[in-house]
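Notes from the 1:1 (GR / supervisor)

We went over the backlog. Supervisor wanted to see one worked example end to end before approving the batch request, so GR pasted a single chain during the call. The sequence is below; no edits were made to it. Supervisor asked that the structure be written out right there so they could see what the output format looks like.
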Amino acid sequence: MTVTAPRLLFLHGFLQNAKVFSEKSSGIRKLLKKSNVECDYLDGPVVLDRKDLPFEMDDEKWQQALDAQVNKAWFYHSDVSSELDLSDSIKYVSDYIKQNGPYDGIVGFSQGAALASIVTNKITELNPEHPEFKVSVLISSYSFTEPDPSKPGQLRIAEKFQSGFTPKKDSKTRVIFIYGASDQAVPAVRAKYLAQIYKDAWTQDPEQVQEYEHPGGHMVPNKKDIIRPIVDQINSAMNA
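Structure output shown during the call:
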């Protein structure tokens, strides 16, 4: 019987691409390679124009972004969660998994982590022949929230995305959250909010949801003392 190597699908962040995410996550990727784990990096289907950016970028930097082909995303940015549309990207990732899978897990950064969370929760619906992931690694992750009309001053998952961010009660997927204490783009509190959703759904196994905070900002940590225990968790989940 042929034993295939474990495989992980990586989803980059906003204004990145597969190549850049591979470079940014090189510490984790190289440690995983030592464990014979295959890392597959996918480009997002959205091609950004300058007008699509939620911040100003001068001519020189925008040209550099075009030259490096990092004007990629999974969905167009909006501060209003109900305006977001992930339907094309969910189908894009699902089709890719059908054609190139199966995968033992998924890894996402920032915008890619938000999408990876939904794909993690929905994988067996999107592709009934694909088993649920053994592990889902969400780096600088967040969910799509809106003010809760029944609880003034509090947030809830936006109504159109509530099913996407609802974990299956009987899931055995191990979910690993990695977030930066100094992250200004996606404050750690947003990752913790999403982590709590999983914790509340999976009270039967407190070890199923793991959280790792690093001192940096909006980035993938690469220092070995930070990433070694994370990679150990990934390997443990895939070998369980």
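Supervisor's comment: The chain has a mean pLDDT of 95.
Batch request approved.
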